[in-house]
Design brief:
The protein contains 1 helix and no strands. With about 50 residues, the protein is mostly helical.
């Protein structure tokens, strides 16, 4: 049995043009914070260890 087919419309969001900048900015800030947390927790503690 094959998985259900996903159309492009199913993964899209309708966003008001006036709110688009604020939404993208919020996503960017959240992603940068997530990357910083990963770096701080999983990479920096082991950076100098062989």
């Amino acid at each position: 049995m094959s998985p259900p087919r996903r159309d492009k419309e199913q993964g899209a969001f309708l966003v008001d043009e006036n709110s688009k900048y604020n939404i993208i900015s919020s996503i960017r800030t959240s992603f940068r914070s997530f990357k910083h947390t990963l770096m701080k927790e999983y990479i920096l503690p082991y950076k100098d260890k062989p």
